[in-house]
Amino acid sequence: MSLAILFLLSYLIGGIPFGYMAGHIVLKTDIRTLGSGNLGASNVFRQVGPGWGIGVLLLDASKGLAVIFLAKTLFPTGADWISLSAGVLAILGHSFTPYLGFRGGKGVATSAGVFLGLAPAALGLAFAVFVITMLIARMVSMSSLMGALALPVALWILYPEKSIILFASLFVAALVWYRHRSNIGRILKGEEPRFKIRGKEA
């Protein structure tokens, strides 16, 4: 398999809209017309149900992990940039899915899957920051933003020799923040709702 095919597959795998599928299967509607309008697990959790939300979370993360596994399997002696490029393309595929007019999710779960395959210890620290922020603020959006910021820091501390992964994590963090720009506006105004099982996206 050529690199071009690997990268195309990575983008297409990342673009699989599991959140949209859950909304269509259960509610017979486009999940993007409900709640926050997002395809992510949080909106599915609230609008479709906790079990479906957790399922979408795991499936979205598995897309990123699967792409890393695929890249490492097909190019076992390849440089880090091959797996890393495949992972970033999967994240972009999730955020700008070609199956739904390039309107996808915010990329947090798929990013977690990618870095679970590339740098699990760093992801663990970022996840700890996510959980602590969630316990304090009870906002999925703020927790995601803080976790995205923590990931490059964790990579810098734990994998200082892997500068290419650090630079990629900075790009991913910037993408996550960009995709959360409406949430950031509400947080600054004090209007961002707290986490609820049903209702508006946090």
List keywords for this structure.
single chain, 202 residues, mainly alpha, 10 helices, globular, disordered C terminus
Approximately how much helix is present in the residues?
over 70%
Number of spatially distinct domains: 1
* Largest β-sheet summary: none
Low-confidence sequence ranges = 197-202
Radius of gyration: 16 Å
How many runs of DSSP E, i.e. beta strands? 0
β-strand percent reads under 5%
Distance between the termini: 41 Å
Return the structural class: mainly alpha
**H/E order of the elements?**
HHHHHHHHHH
Structure description:
The chain has 202 residues and is mainly α. It has one domain. It has 10 helices and no strands. It has helices at residues 3-14, 18-27, 41-47, 50-74, 80-95, 108-118, 120-137, 140-158, 163-179, 181-189. The protein is globular, with a radius of gyration of 16 Å. It starts with a helix and ends in a 13-residue tail after the last helix. 48% of the residues are buried.
What is the structure about, briefly put?
It contains ten helices and no strands.
